[in-house]
Design brief:
Helices cover 37% and strands 30% of the residues. The protein contains seven helices and ten strands. The chain has a ten-stranded mixed sheet.
């Protein structure tokens, strides 16, 4: 379980990741509001969170065999050609985070997404709860980045980014697609070697009408694994926290 504290306006908000049943609404930082992210059990204010996980206790050959045929072929081809190299920063420095931030925010601009939440990343860093991975071409150009939340047993993808949209070349886009799959596979092997138990792809969309998000689901499911339903919830703890929650509900 991971806990971080952040401030928003006049509120102290504690985010708790991967809580077990007896920790669903407990906090440790005298927060006004507690947000549980991917808790194991349902609370009365919970919303379902669907994700895809890999069991890292399986051996590498089994994990590879459970991939889709096309992804397995691309990963093996990339391994054999030696045109890509990957690095994992288990304890990323501020400079590592800045490089990730710059890369991700360009990606976010091309997809009209929000910029990455650097304050959250730094709070997680303070808890030794992030890892960053990157795949480079042979000229040391970064092609894809991943940023993970990590606790004792689980690694959970928080951000993923590539710049393939900035290049109209079909060949280049295909190369980046292979690099992205290769990065996932090398991350899986790395975290397995570090004795983590679960590799979490960071969510699956349940919006069947959003074809782009369903394509992201299909990409993740190429790696095998199993679906898991967990629960996100929030609770006002102090008077002002409870008031803020009521105001938020009325605004919806």
């Amino acid at each position: 379980m991971i806990s971080i504290l952040k401030k928003k306006c006049f509120l102290k908000i504690e985010e708790i990741y991967f809580a077990e049943e007896n920790n669903l609404i407990k906090g440790k930082n005298n927060a006004d509001v507690i947000i549980n992210v991917q808790a194991a059990k349902r609370d009365k204010n919970s919303k379902e969170f669907h994700t895809l996980i890999l069991n890292l206790t399986k051996d590498e050959e089994q994990l590879l065999s459970e991939m889709g045929r096309g992804t397995r072929r691309k990963v093996k081809s990339a391994s054999n050609k030696g045109e890509l190299k990957t690095v994992v920063f288990n304890k990323p420095s501020i400079e590592d985070i800045k490089r990730f931030e710059e890369f991700y925010n360009i990606f976010a601009m091309t997809k009209k997404l929000k910029k990455c939440d650097v304050k959250k990343i730094l709070s997680l860093k303070d808890e030794n709860a992030i890892s960053i991975s990157v795949v480079y071409d042979m000229k040391n150009n970064p092609l894809c980045y991943h940023l993970y939340i990590v606790d004792k047993y689980r690694v959970r993808l928080l951000y993923s980014a590539s710049h393939y949209r900035l290049n109209n070349s079909t060949e280049y886009r295909s190369f980046v697609g292979i690099a992205h799959r290769y990065l996932h596979w090398n991350d899986i092997k790395h975290f397995k070697s570090c004795r983590y138990l679960t590799y979490d792809f960071g969510g699956l969309s349940t919006d069947l009408n959003n074809e782009e998000l369903q394509n992201v689901n299909r990409f993740k499911e190429e790696f095998g694994g199993s679906r898991l339903v967990e629960y996100n919830s929030y609770k006002g703890v102090t008077i002002k926290g409870k008031i803020a929650i009521k105001v938020l509900k009325k605004g919806k």
